[in-house]
Design a protein that fits this description.
Layout (H helix, E strand, L loop, with lengths): L6 H13 L6 E9 L9 E9 L15 E7 L3 E6 L11 E7 L4 H12 L15 H16 L4
Antiparallel strand pairs: 1-2, 2-3, 3-4, 4-5
Helix pairs in contact: 1-2
Length: 152
């Protein structure tokens, strides 16, 4: 499996979640999903899914009987989340999280996830970007340029 430009950022998110006692059950990154967003010239997009099943001790199963999924898509400007249903299918379209911009700091993602997993309101104010946001932006821009035949 090859490295993708958002892998280091997603790994930092998972590492921070794990250190906070919110270890996801699994996570994946991809560059093969169809791009549902308009106007950027990409047929596919970068994305990631971080998933907590009902087996996770962090999940309030009274609120989320089958767990939740946290989703990151490029070119979306914000993280998204959705409840999982039976067999891991999302129960509804993912909901954007205005508090988590595309490159939100891992600590902010962790605070938001803690609220989601516990069935609590998420923070209202936008998070600061990760201290590595510029590196990730540059790597993603190179991927976009290579994928569209343009320049970064």
């Amino acid at each position: 499996m090859r490295d993708l430009p958002h892998d280091p950022y997603i790994k930092a998110i998972v590492d921070t979640l794990t250190a906070a006692g919110l270890e996801p059950d699994y996570c994946w990154t991809s560059d093969a999903e169809s791009n549902p967003y308009d106007g950027d010239g990409l047929d596919v997009m970068l994305n990631a899914a971080i998933v907590w099943t009902s087996d996770s001790p962090a999940v309030d199963t009274d609120r989320h009987p089958d767990g939740i999924a946290l989703l990151w898509d490029h070119p979306a400007d914000q993280w998204q989340w959705a409840e999982r249903g039976a067999h891991g299918v999302l129960t509804a379209e993912p909901v954007f999280l205005p508090c988590l911009g595309r490159y939100a700091h891992p600590d902010s993602v962790t605070a938001c996830v803690r609220a989601l997993l516990g069935g609590q309101p998420v923070p209202e104010h936008p998070a600061v970007d990760s201290h590595r946001a510029d590196q990730v932006r540059a790597a993603v821009a190179q991927w976009v340029a290579a994928s569209t035949g343009g320049t970064a």
